[in-house]
Design a protein that fits this description.
metal-binding, Glycosyl_Hydrolase_47, about 35% helix, EC 3.2.1.-, three-stranded antiparallel β-sheet
């Protein structure tokens, strides 16, 4: 039986083996047939083998249509072409120009402002990027995502200005304004040759940067001049192109100008990949650039004005707020733009006060007063607030422009459009019982299709008068809250019969309106109106002519010029502010050579409750260097001769700031020590060293305290050591027998081999070989040595040698001189400079701007000399492959180029350098006024 079972197992294995041989044989034949097919192809016998080929039977297919209810599949999607990929390999030369990219054959149909009739092209550079791949460049320029691009549309205003309340542009004859520009004499032939040579050099540097932009960043915001790529920090509307239009005209590059003007038509200001529009930057660069090019070209190119109006209509929508103060970062997309807006309670002063020149010029050209009305209201509010600040006469860098003490009320309700804000007419009060719900109102359904069933409201919970316990009070007994939005309080919702509903309108306070039935009102929370206020109620406030404030003060005299002197408040506001600046911000720096120059610093003012004296920080920033030109212009047009001397010294201060560094370029900002007087200031090295190392005395005092503590600790440690040493007694020498008896004894059979080996190596004493049964408690009786317990241990001399306690030993600090010299060397500080706040240079124009103004106002050739030195230093250290670039540190011998070229390099910096050496009649200060981006607007005559 046993054998029979074994045979059955063998039979099963044999069957499996035969089956496996059969399967392997089939696969081998298939392999052989495939091999023979290849051989037939080589021998030209393919046709014969095809005659013997038999098709495999077809697999049955499902004939019933698959129909699943998928909501997402029913949403129509716009067809989209695949991204265009361009690869530049190492050694292939320059990457291809974005302007040569072929148009995709399939693209979304844009929806322009106001309907399909205003359709425009998709903005260039929309969601495009250039990424590095290995050593080559892979440029991917996809179309917008599968979601169709969003386009701005004009919305109905929530807070419109009544036509009778619009502040109109002055249209009278301009007043006589004193001459600004110096009366230059005719130059000599040698002077002309030298000037034209320098002019040609400046023009060639401009042309190289413009060609780089044209080839690698056409219609994009900015060129990356090192890598030959681009970036779009603004709105992808070709910032450099629009910003540079007037520079092309001024330099006589007519062919390039005409090409750029045509390219403006490809810009669509109704859409952008950016979610918000920066109002200030867009106004000074784009709107200013378009209007200046339109003025310079003699109003020839109408498309420039058309595009300016298109952009202005988008920007003017940001002013639709209760107090008409603009939203400085405008959320333009219709879903956001259709809601009510409120200006921020923390607005940068320059972003609020630097819109006047551009919108005024647009109003003058188009004869549309709404543009002037928008900025005139800002001026009025600044005028009211000017003498109510902590430093009366100036404004802090941050301002609360919300106009309402209840913050962010617009986020609580969605407010439909209302009629213009004007005095309401006396309307008859409708009894509450006559307001009936409309019978035509459709039923409200939930998302699931169920009917909404309104629930009765519980009586409101209020505090009992004079107590803290909440009580229920009937609705009729609750006094209606007061709403103050500049209009009388209304008792009930003013609705047409067709819009009446079942809501208890008598108990819902709303803002009155005079809109038609298509413009219903909505309730708003209470608001206590206010004018411009400070955003820093509890902290310090900054008052400065530098960043975040600069162009607000700059635009006061320029707006006065542009309006022909017809609005006197601009002069009053300017003179008031400059008097405060001279008394509180202008200072003379303490320098080793006693240079007679001036800087405009930053004043930090604490809240009045703290009763602290304002602190003047001795800062000189590149952005503040415009002040020399402003003071010079104000001195001429407002007859303030003393201000012209201040203007010269402020400009000389910025020239000194260029000369103080290794590169000959001024850093973004640095700190010096202010002198107490503007007339004289002796060099005080002790004071300078204290500023470099203000903690010297504290560091020395701390070291002295540590030394004193060290001496006390050493005395205590020494006494303890002497006492321990006195009690120490060396143990008597032991005989070998005593040493052996003192060792612990264990039995051999209780140890493993490793323990036994370790014991033999470490303790060569005897190991018992007695069996475990002969040991009491596992230890031999004669090896048990009783220990001494109890007794006065202090009376027994210690047999352990004492160790001296560890005591912290203070290290001597660096000396005052060592710290000072180390800071000067490590930070590469020029003499007299305490700290460099920002070492970089981003091609800023403010210093050469004031140099140009000083030359045109004084006629002194000195300004041309220092201007040329500035140009050579800048071009030497910023020149890149395709243009000029920002650098990281002007204190280095060889600064690192950061591959960034802002649009103002071509729009401002090189324009001012060119105008400095051009004929003085070009852009005369008596005929033109330049905005803060150096865009010239024609003055009224």
């Amino acid at each position: 039986m046993f054998r029979y079972r074994r045979y059955r197992v063998f039979l099963v294995f044999a069957f499996i083996a035969v089956l496996a041989l059969y399967e392997f044989g089939s696969s081998g034949s298939s392999w052989n047939s495939a091999t023979s097919r290849v051989k037939q192809l080589k021998d030209g016998k393919e046709e014969q083998s095809l005659l013997n080929w038999k098709p495999r039977p077809q697999v049955a297919k499902e004939t019933k249509k698959f129909d699943a209810d998928i909501p997402g599949a029913k949403i129509p999607h716009t067809l989209q072409a695949p991204p265009i990929v361009r690869v530049t390999r190492p050694g292939d030369g320059k990457p291809p120009s974005p302007s040569k990219t072929p148009e995709p054959t399939i693209k979304p149909t844009p929806i322009g402002a106001g309907g399909p009739e205003n359709d425009g092209p998709i903005p260039p550079g929309f969601n495009s990027e250039l990424v590095e791949v290995g050593q080559g460049r892979l440029e991917v320029t996809p179309l917008p995502s599968s979601v169709e691009p969003i386009y701005w549309k004009k919305q109905s205003e929530h807070f419109p200005v009544a036509s009778t309340a619009i502040i109109k542009l002055p249209t009278g004859a301009p007043k006589a304004i004193p001459k600004i520009q110096f009366s230059f004499k005719k130059e000599s032939a040698s002077e002309k040759a030298d000037r034209e040579s320098k002019l040609g050099t400046i023009k060639s540097v401009f042309k190289r940067s413009w060609d780089g932009y044209k080839e690698f960043a056409w219609l994009q915001d900015e060129l990356r001049p090192v890598s030959g790529t681009y970036k779009n920090p603004f709105a992808s509307w070709g910032a450099t192109l629009v910003d540079t239009l007037d520079t092309l005209w001024i330099m006589g590059l007519q062919e390039e100008f005409e090409e750029a003007v045509k390219a403006v038509d490809q810009i669509n200001f109704t859409t952008t990949p950016r979610a918000d529009i920066p109002l200030f930057e867009t106004t000074i660069r784009y709107l200013g650039g378009l209007l200046a090019a339109y003025d310079l070209s003699g109003s020839k190119h109408k498309n420039l004005l058309t595009k300016a109006v298109e952009l202005a209509e988008v920007l003017i929508s940001a002013f639709d707020t209760p107090n008409r103060m603009p939203v400085t970062y405008y959320l333009w997309r219709p879903d956001f733009a259709s809601n009510a807006h409120q200006a921020s309670n923390r607005v940068v002063l320059a972003e609020l006060g630097s819109l006047s020149v551009e919108f005024t010029r647009l109003a003058q050209v188009t004869k549309d007063h709404k543009y002037y009305d928008a900025i005139a209201r800002i001026t009025d509010e600044l005028e009211k607030f000017q003498n109510e600040t902590r430093l009366p006469g100036m404004w802090p860098t941050y301002i609360d422009a919300s106009g309402c003490k209840t913050p962010d009320w617009t986020s609580q309700v969605e407010t439909p459009p209302q009629a213009p804000l004007e005095p309401p007419k006396d309307l008859p009060e409708l009894p509450a019982e006559k307001i009936e719900p409309s019978t035509t109102t459709p039923e409200l359904l939930s998302p699931g299709g169920n009917k909404y069933i309104p629930l009765d409201r519980p009586p409101p919970l209020v505090l009992a008068p004079g107590g803290t316990n909440p009580t229920f009070v009937p609705v009729q007994e609750i006094q209606e809250p007061t709403i103050n939005w500049g209009v009388p309080k209304v008792q009930r919702r003013q609705l047409d019969d067709a819009e009446a509903s079942s809501v208890d309108v008598a108990a819902t306070p709303v803002l009155t309106t005079h809109a038609s039935s298509s413009s219903p009102t909505a309730s708003r929370p209470d608001c206590e109106p206010q004018g411009l206020m400070s955003s820093s109620d509890l902290g310090e406030e900054d008052y400065t002519l530098g960043g975040m404030s600069d162009s607000t003060y700059e635009y006061l005299p320029k707006q006065y010029l542009l309006l022909g002197g017809q609005v006197e408040k601009y002069r009053t506001m300017y003179e008031t502010s400059m008097d405060v600046v001279k008394d509180n911000l202008i200072f003379r720096p303490m320098l080793p050579n006693g240079d007679d120059i001036l800087f405009s610093g930053k004043l930090l003012v604490s809240p009045p409750k703290e009763k602290k004296k304002p602190f003047l920080e001795g800062e000189n920033a590149h952005l503040t260097c415009f002040a020399g030109g402003m003071f010079g212009m104000g001195a001429k047009i407002f007859n303030r001769p003393d201000d012209l001397e201040i203007a010269k010294k402020l400009t000389e201060g910025c020239v000194w700031s260029y000369n103080m560094t290794t590169t000959g370029i001024m850093p973004e900002a640095f700190i010096v020590l202010p002198c107490e007087s503007l007339k004289g200031c002796e060099w005080n090295e002790t004071r300078y060293w204290e500023a470099l190392d203000p903690n010297a005395e504290m560091r020395l005092s701390s070291y002295e305290d540590q030394v004193a503590a060290f001496n006390i600790a050493m005395a205590s440690a020494s006494a303890a050591y002497e006492e321990a040493l006195a009690q120490f007694t060396a143990p008597p020498a032991k005989t070998p027998t005593e040493e052996a008896r003192a060792l612990p004894t264990v039995t051999a059979d209780t140890l493993d081999k490793r323990q036994l080996a370790d014991l033999e190596e470490e303790s060569p004493g005897p190991v018992s070989t007695q069996p475990a049964d002969a040991v009491v408690g596992g230890v031999e009786e004669e090896a048990v040595v009783p220990s001494k317990v109890g007794g006065n241990s202090s009376a027994v001399p210690s047999q352990v040698e004492p160790v001296f306690p560890s005591v912290y030993t203070p290290s001597p600090p660096r000396t005052h001189k060592q710290v000072v010299m180390s800071r000067i060397q490590e930070e590469r500080l020029p003499p007299g400079v305490v700290r460099i706040k920002a070492q970089n240079y981003i091609l800023r124009p403010e210093a050469i701007e004031s140099v140009w103004y000083m030359y045109r106002i004084t006629g002194d050739p000195h300004w041309r000399e220092v201007g040329w030195q500035m140009f050579e230093a800048i071009n030497k250290h910023t020149a890149a492959k395709y243009g000029n670039s920002a650098i990281d540190d002007v204190t280095k011998t060889s600064p690192v180029i950061s591959d960034e070229m802002e649009s103002f390099w071509l729009a401002e910096t090189l324009k001012y350098f060119y105008l400095l050496f051009a004929e003085e009649s070009l852009i005369s200060l008596d005929e033109w006024v330049l905005n803060t981006e150096a865009h010239p607007f024609r003055r009224p005559t």
